[in-house]
Amino acid sequence: MTSQIARKTVGDFRQAQTPAGEAESLTAREQEVLELLAKGCLYKEIADTLQISYRTISTHTEHIYKKLHVHSRAQAVAKHCGLLT
Hints:
The chain has 85 residues and is mainly alpha-helical. Helices cover 66% and strands 0% of the residues.
């Protein structure tokens, strides 16, 4: 393995690690949305429950995924429940 490849590999592992306190970086509304996602609610149901638009739920979900470094609802819920690190 060349030194360039080794640096890239180490860099990738560093990015993959979860910084402590990610859940705390979520806003109160994002935490509410994540809780409802974890309960299996659909975006429309969450929007109705929180009395906000479907698009706003979509935006909150995008922010949650970015902050938790995940790519799907299942990964976000797993990380939220402590099943995914």
